[in-house]
Design goal:
heterodimer; A: alpha/beta; TIM Barrel; 2 domains; 9-stranded mixed beta sheet; 3-stranded antiparallel beta sheet; globular; disordered N terminus; B: alpha+beta; 6-stranded antiparallel beta barrel; about 35% strand; binds guanosine-5'-triphosphate; binds S-adenosylmethionine; binds iron/sulfur cluster; binds magnesium ion
Chain lengths: ~400, ~600
Amino acid sequence: MNLSYKNNLGLYIHWPYCESKCPYCDFNSHKTESINEEDWIQAYVNQLHTMKEMLLKYNVKFNKLNTIFFGGGTPSLMPLKVIEKILNTANKLFDFEEKIEITLEANPGSYEREKFLDINQMGINRLSLGVQSLNDTNLNFLGRKHNYKDAIIALELAKRTFSNVSIDLIYGLKNQKIKEWEIELNSIIKNFQPNHISVYQLTIEEGTKFYSDYKKGLLKIIDEDLSADFYDNTNSLLENFDYKRYEVSNHAKNNFECSHNLNYWNSNNWIGIGPGAYSRLWSSNNNNKRFEIENYKSPKSWLSKNIHNAEFKKISFIDNSETNIDILIMGLRLSKGIKINKLLDKKIIKNEKIINLINEKIININTERIKVNKNYMIKLNAILQQIIN
Amino acid sequence: MTETNLIRNFAIIAHIDHGKSTLADRLIQECNGLAERDMKEQVLDSMDIERERGITIKSQTVRLLYKHTDNQTYTLNLMDTPGHVDFAYEVSRSLSACEGSLLVVDSSQGVEAQTLANVYQAIEVNHEIVTILNKIDLPASEPERIRQQIEDVIGLPGEECIEVSAKTGQGIKEVLSSLVEKLPPPKGDVNAQLQALLIDSWYDPYLGVLTLVRVKQGMLRKGQKIRFMSTQVSHTIESLGIFTPKILNVDTLGPGEIGFITASVKTVADCKVGDTITDERNPAKDMLPGFKPSVPVVFCGLFPMDNAQFSDLKESLSKLSLNDASFSFEAETSAALGFGFRCGFLGLLHMEIIRERLTREFDLDLISTAPSVVYKVQKTDNTNVLLHNPADLPDINHINFIEEPWIKATIMVPDEYVGSVLTLCTDRRGEQIDLTYAGARAMIVYKLPLNEVVFDFYDKLKSMTSGYASFDYQIDSYKQGNLVRVSILVNGDPVDALAMMSHRDQAENRGRAICARLKDLIPRQLFKVALQAAIGGKVIARETITPMRKDVTAKCYGGDISRKKKLLEKQKAGKKRMRQFGKVEIPQNAFFEALKMGDN
Ligand SMILES: Nc1nc2c(ncn2[C@@H]2O[C@H](COP(=O)(O)OP(=O)(O)OP(=O)(O)O)[C@@H](O)[C@H]2O)c(=O)[nH]1
Ligand SMILES: C[S@@+](CC[C@H](N)C(=O)[O-])C[C@H]1O[C@@H](n2cnc3c(N)ncnc32)[C@H](O)[C@@H]1O
Ligand code: SF4
Ligand SMILES: [Mg+2]
């Protein structure tokens, strides 16, 4: 069996604090509170050490560390010393690949902007900026702390500081017009030429303020047809500017795909440290079974559990049949699809429904890869339903 | 054994909701049948479905001991009956077990369709009738007007009606004493050869098969060897008992008494309702008149959602039929739905209740097809077939003609609604038989094809008359009709479970309506779905379900895998409620809902 794809390794660091909680956000993020820097450093460092031991114990095959991603929350609010300490420790424990990609998520607020230069010097070489929108009404609706002007200043500064800048945008707000959105998108691209753009349709996630508003009928969402138009138009606009949609919501200029995230979609190895972060790793011990390590979710309990010795909430081996489905669910999000030989059991793509989907030119299978055809990515869930049920 | 002149047997009859079961509560209480702590509202409605819906489905029998003003203690056997038209059969059986009826009329509503239907049945079996005006406590109660109505419409003496509130207990004593005084005691010689009428039988998880009997003459004893005269099977009585309403074992049941027996009877099928039970060693010569068998009039297909549950469904149907001999079932196969059963019911409510009990008591997930009536088809070779399922209609070239069942419907309604009710009946191909007024109420009698009534006629009638109309019907006769089968095609393939019979003149409208409803019922899919209605090869209506446009999760990274899978799993659970038909997934409820006529 070809194990090469299992050799990539990514590191995700979760920072759980934000200036305030956005009403649509269901990430493990909390309004910032005063923290003890040293405690947090200690806990992250403890986790890194223990993770290294786990990799050995479970015989996880990898060469070097390929990517690092500081996500959140708002990691641009992390004390510089914490970032620095994590990077140093990681460097000591794992060999960094030469072209290692190190991303940090940043919000466009003024406090965060000030740190761009410093973090760049620490080794962060990719900035993912949560612009969300360039329209103050929409930013306000989304409960963002920054405005249009902040976003512009942050973008300019980011472009000057980092050679690889990505932005996050959200569309499909009720009352948003496609035309306005296209103009907005157009102007961001023309003015700032980000290397990478993630565009998400606003999703009403359970447990958020938007969700309860929606349930109460206070918040409306756009209908399926309009949402499809938004998606299609966004994709063609970005394509015209030479951004390739390489994943459902991710678009990149040539060679600027996010390696760290590709690691997820390709079901490789990653380590996740920090509150609520997950690791998923392939153990060569156990017949190449995949296992998951779960962290305590609330920042307080995570900190207290990890301040002396790293303690994870749960380590569990995943059934191969589940892993097989995971590989497919994640892999088909990519425009290129996935290599068929990644599947643990190829039966999953050999049934009547698949043949149907192939005949209808919805999916494409050649000797090497299985993928969803371009125009059908928009219906991925329905397609996955057909395949995995 | 009680002396017959100290026994009174009576059935409580009324229109639905006029208060029969509540009245039974008061009578039980007045005679101390139940301890206070065991008392609850409509205590005799013991099935979950009865309690939830607040209606009686099965008749119940209670023996009460009542001390009359003459200081004698009388045995009163009370039978609470259902009011809904579907269960008229239950009423008729109870009536044959009694000498008298307690007619309940809601004094705020007056005489309704089932009041008439039931009281006519009682008169037909020569019952003495005690009439009460119930709900006298209600401000809307109009005893004087209703007395008049009872005289005018039914022909019973209005001045003799007792004013009662089953809620407050007013008039209850008077009811009891009038039952003793007005109703005749049963007759029957205890020394004659045993004749006991088999009124009902059902399966009790603790006691096995219980058989409810009314002894006409002779005596039933524990250990006695008895014979069921029509089936000719013999059994030994294991126990005898009565309901007080709690079970009380007794040693004997004599003439005039109503109680149950248990014997080594394994199947309820051995206990044919209406049969006569006699003594094996000293048998009676003649059988008692018995009952007309109940005939299912409405049929539908029931299929397990999961094909693997077929044998569970079969077992559940058999078990349920132990408690309800009035529905029928036979195996059927559908190209669309797989293996299932074609089941026959006494009416729509009956069908609904059986379906609900199957899902609830037996934990089955079912697909039900739309109800259909039984057609008589004469083929060109002059043979006749009974058509229970439109899908089985023979080739049109082999058919001489088709007959459909008609009913005689009686509708009682305040006169301001007469116009719209007549329009409704005409729309449903009705023929007017009679229209009479009594005060501000009209009695409309129509003949209607059952097919037109079966699905939503009653709902329509109720809503267009703000709930004031009442409706009763009897099967009348079969009549030839210009009938066709409307087939429904999904992406060009006919779906047998969606086929329906229709009058030729309405076929196009119906076809269009079904396609339109299906379009709403079937969610958008990956592929385009074409819906067509056709008669034979001719398409009469079509609709298209455009493919879904978007169904994708925007964000999915390393930490989202489990959540994302849960989402897909949730959708998968939803899909389980769908039936795959070719490439198309049709939701479970569509097979039933599509044929609801709605406003066409
Ligand atoms: N106010 C008032 N309400 C009553 C009286 N008798 C019955 N009801 C109410 O009328 C409704 C119907 O009563 P039931 O006793 O279930 O009627 P039923 O005739 O047994 O109904 P079916 O068995 O379904 O035919 C219930 O809500 C009772 O509480 C009464 O004397 N006064
Ligand atoms: C980890 S999050 C947040 C990063 C950073 N804290 C921020 O808000 O900019 C990454 C991105 O997911 C997107 N996102 C979060 N919640 C969303 C939702 N409910 N619907 C659509 N996009 C969402 C936002 O674009 C956000 O930038
Ligand atoms: S800033 Fe980002 S992570 Fe924080 S609450 Fe808002 S969307 Fe969530
Ligand atoms: Mg009742």
